[in-house]
Amino acid sequence: MAVKNAFYAQSGGVTAVINASACGVLQTARKYPDRIGKVYAGRNGIIGALREELIDTSLETDETIAALRYTPGGAFGSCRHKLKNFDENKREYERLIEVFRAHDIGYFFYNGGGDSQDTAYKISQLSERLGYPITAIGIPKTVDNDLPFTDNCPGFGSVAKYVATSTLEASLDIESMCESSTKVFILEVMGRHAGWIAASAGLAGKGHDQAPHIILFPEIAFDREAFLARVDHCVKEYGYCVVVASEGAQYEDGHFIADAGGRDAFGHTQLGGVAPVLANMVKQALGYKFHWAVSDYLQRAARHIASETDVRQAYAVGEAAVEFAMNGKNAVMPIIRREQNSPYRWSIGEVPLGEVANQEKKMPIHYIRDDGFGITADCREYLLPLIAGEDYPPFENGLPKVARPANKLVPKKLKATFEL
Amino acid sequence: MAVKNAFYAQSGGVTAVINASACGVLQTARKYPDRIGKVYAGRNGIIGALREELIDTSLETDETIAALRYTPGGAFGSCRHKLKNFDENKREYERLIEVFRAHDIGYFFYNGGGDSQDTAYKISQLSERLGYPITAIGIPKTVDNDLPFTDNCPGFGSVAKYVATSTLEASLDIESMCESSTKVFILEVMGRHAGWIAASAGLAGKGHDQAPHIILFPEIAFDREAFLARVDHCVKEYGYCVVVASEGAQYEDGHFIADAGGRDAFGHTQLGGVAPVLANMVKQALGYKFHWAVSDYLQRAARHIASETDVRQAYAVGEAAVEFAMNGKNAVMPIIRREQNSPYRWSIGEVPLGEVANQEKKMPIHYIRDDGFGITADCREYLLPLIAGEDYPPFENGLPKVARPANKLVPKKLKATFEL
């Protein structure tokens, strides 16, 4: 078989372990020098392909590639750029083919969430549509854990471990001080329209009387009175109340809680998430002393507290993507299959890209406690293996070591530039 | 010598390692059964003494005591309660003596910041003032790192490690995405009137061109125009800008930046810290896409990323406090002395409580870069040893293990109760 170059790119919000997937792709590709020539990484995702900004990963040392496994962020740059439908923006697809042809690219590996799998699917259709033969494989990634078919999404387990650990730690802090200081603590977490990340905080405690006492899921309509009553009950009964709120928590009518922050002196919508809004609500209705935290990017970048399971799975889907391509598969995405719960066993499966694109996996309603404020035993059973094990990065001078790839661009071959 | 019981209490905001100091106190006290009878821990700090709510730590197993070393929060409860001057509230001092006498307490160990050392000092005067002989030793603790004499304060090194690590990790995230997404990220950190914690973020990068690009210290008057100019420069020059802001950052006239958040629809002062206010400022003046995080209690509770140096020192000051008492010392506080920078060597010294109380150590101005937005080489040299080494807690089921002391109260001996 002819040697072809490969294109790999990272897409969408990065995670603590997306570079572990990159590591899996690159290390595996290096095992097939008779099939895969160079692996070019898109500088800033698919934008790099459109602009012909291709990072030559063959110039990176084995050590740098290995260090990707423990480096958070997206080592080659990521992007938020969704390819339109073929008929809507044929120009983009034609450009991609020009670039791929110019650099003899025969393999396309795209590492991202739902939108990115849609992009990978569209690329896989290029053979048929534009007569350019290419093998396109998606690689799953998203902290939101909302891709269908796969047991979970690489990136999620590490955020879950960070959120559960942080909730446990902060809860001990508040418990210590509640007699004469803060009584209500609110932690805002990510997850968009899915409550998976918020749910993971529930692993920090068991039962109604343990922190977190309240989890606010996007899947459950926010009821101000019920929320305040539960806060008040917890403070009176347990001395304090720990609330973990999903950024996507919303009222019955679909308004986000975070939207209720009012407007500033200039009439602009007040910035800020759900945590300060809830804190304000508690203060005004109940008068309790409060604190709030918004961990934002810290949670999805926290490689130092990554889940070992997650790191292994992130690596495995990168590795599998290359193996799939080597086995002649096309237009598929590796998925994680849960074989068994306890002890947890998993394997790698596959799903056609056409089926996975643009679908969102919500939390099953039986994962949420009847009162809407916590997780069930089923949910706990699902989540626990995903945060299992630690995979500490090496440290140097007190800080995590990280890969610093040279990211040298391949000389351009095309005369035309491309405006996004 | 007669056997006397000891009183130990935790005071003020808790830290990731204040229980390591408790561990040092309790394990060391157990070595002197012929001198120290039981160690009673105040339930919720000094409040426990006033209310005669004394936790009998002799009922805790050696395993539980050992586990305190890796448990964040305050295992016996802490408080924000400052004893007034003797003449202003003699009633409190008389009550303390009643309780101490009833429980045959001859040693007083008080673990806290500046206010708490003031309390320890007042207790040490009880012998003279009220004729009750007691040995009072302070044990330093504060994430704000603002106690005088000691090289640093137990608790600070671990927050510094958390903040430096989180800043490094989040910066990689933002760098990955800045081409088509967030360009400005703002992390708010603690520290009250001292910029030590904010300074520690500076360890994540070196030089003007590396993240964090801007640190806002309470010690440097906030200049809106200079700040916005620097943000704009960084975005244009480096593609993104990472800002770490101390909660105590303020304008020239002493107004906190956080106060500028305006009022909500009800006319209440808008809650929320400096991060969302700065984000709003950037948005309105420059229009860049932003994200912000407020780590709040997460930073001071983050035992999972504690500094090994900090844990050792926190343990050592607890241990030293008991050894001091056994050596007949009184009204002193153990301090950390820096013997050498590289390799870092330290020892335990002491300072009279009367000198340490109610003083605040500010950051030396030569630790802050001339432009006011970063740290100097001197500051780096000071900070680096304090975040050195990792001291991971054991994990179980994916989460840190923590001590769960039984915290059984000693039966009360006094008839009178006490209203705070």
From TrEMBL, chains A, B:
Family membership noted in the UniProt record: Belongs to the phosphofructokinase type A (PFKA) family. PPi-dependent PFK group II subfamily. Clade 'B2' sub-subfamily.
Q: Where in the cell is it found?
A: Cytoplasm
Record site: Important for catalytic activity: 141
Q: One GO biological process from the UniProt record? A: fructose 6-phosphate metabolic process
Q: Which leading EC class covers this enzyme?
A: transferase
- Principal localization reads cytoplasm
Q: Where, by residue number, does diphosphate bind?
A: 13
**What keywords is this UniProt entry annotated with?**
Cytoplasm, Glycolysis, Kinase, Magnesium, Metal-binding, Transferase
Organism listed in the record: Hydrocarboniclastica marina
Which protein are we looking at? Pyrophosphate--fructose 6-phosphate 1-phosphotransferase
Q: Where is the secretion signal located? A: none
EC number(s) from the headed UniProt entry: 2.7.1.90
- Enumerate the residues binding substrate: 142-144, 190-192, 247, 297-300
